[in-house]
Amino acid sequence: MPAGSGIPVVVRIQREDFDTAAETASLCAQHGRIGAVVTFTGLCRDEDGTLAALELEHYPGMAEAEIRRICEEAVERFSLEGIAAIHRFGRMAPGESIVLVIAAAPHRHAAFDGASFVMDYLKTSAPFWKKEHRADGSTGGWVEAKDADDRARAKWRK
Amino acid sequence: MTKLVYFAWVRERIGRGEEELDLPGHVKTAGDLLRHLKTLGEEYEMALEHENVIRVAVNHEHVEHGETIEGAREIALFPPMTGG
């Protein structure tokens, strides 16, 4: 388990934006075994100009706990040397970043798989919900969960 | 008393984000809780109408509807998640 193993697991839930370069440098500092780093950033789309903003609601406490559980599983499963997951909440305009995942490993396949695994689990298990605010001023309602996300997660079952 | 917290459209339909409830002894599983809440008023009926899509977490961990909620300090009800 990552706890006590010295492998950095960084999980943050925050309103403010993040700095991918700074987070990557911090995660990989003084880890000579890292030969590959994959970063994934999820952004708010404008949905062909119809979307003004997304409002991200989360369950404080559980959001961090759940993402930490997912990250720790990824470290163990892919023998990662470091993992970071930062998820924002609050109101986000198109083009703004929502989520950042950084997976570091000795070689590239583990880093790609680690980042992909964390995102697939995070989408379906981390307690966040998106509400749309339309460009015409109306509230577009809550974004519905997609079956494709459940299938993406299912492919990781051993 | 058990603390219940609600999120997204479950919160909107019930009309509050959290409350403390005294749960009767026959409410032993997450599914029992959903069925019990639906007897408390039409806002709960509306929020929990499609019972099978409602997700339940006990003390910050996901549970299936058949799992026990005994010993829960905090129970959360919410729709399928759409983060990331």
From TrEMBL, chain A:
<dbReference type="InterPro" id="IPR036563">
    <property type="entry name" value="MoaE_sf"/>
</dbReference>
<comment type="subunit">
    <text>Heterotetramer of 2 MoaD subunits and 2 MoaE subunits. Also stable as homodimer. The enzyme changes between these two forms during catalysis.</text>
</comment>
<comment type="similarity">
    <text>Belongs to the MoaE family.</text>
</comment>
<comment type="pathway">
    <text>Cofactor biosynthesis; molybdopterin biosynthesis.</text>
</comment>
<dbReference type="InterPro" id="IPR003448">
    <property type="entry name" value="Mopterin_biosynth_MoaE"/>
</dbReference>
<protein>
    <recommendedName>
        <fullName>Molybdopterin synthase catalytic subunit</fullName>
        <ecNumber>2.8.1.12</ecNumber>
    </recommendedName>
</protein>
<feature type="compositionally biased region" description="Basic and acidic residues">
    <location>
        <begin position="144"/>
        <end position="158"/>
    </location>
</feature>
<dbReference type="Pfam" id="PF02391">
    <property type="entry name" value="MoaE"/>
</dbReference>
<feature type="region of interest" description="Disordered">
    <location>
        <begin position="132"/>
        <end position="158"/>
    </location>
</feature>
<comment type="function">
    <text>Converts molybdopterin precursor Z into molybdopterin. This requires the incorporation of two sulfur atoms into precursor Z to generate a dithiolene group. The sulfur is provided by MoaD.</text>
</comment>
<keyword id="KW-0501">Molybdenum cofactor biosynthesis</keyword>
TrEMBL record, chain B:
<protein>
    <submittedName>
        <fullName>Molybdopterin converting factor subunit 1</fullName>
    </submittedName>
</protein>
<dbReference type="Pfam" id="PF02597">
    <property type="entry name" value="ThiS"/>
</dbReference>
<dbReference type="InterPro" id="IPR016155">
    <property type="entry name" value="Mopterin_synth/thiamin_S_b"/>
</dbReference>
<dbReference type="InterPro" id="IPR003749">
    <property type="entry name" value="ThiS/MoaD-like"/>
</dbReference>
<dbReference type="InterPro" id="IPR012675">
    <property type="entry name" value="Beta-grasp_dom_sf"/>
</dbReference>
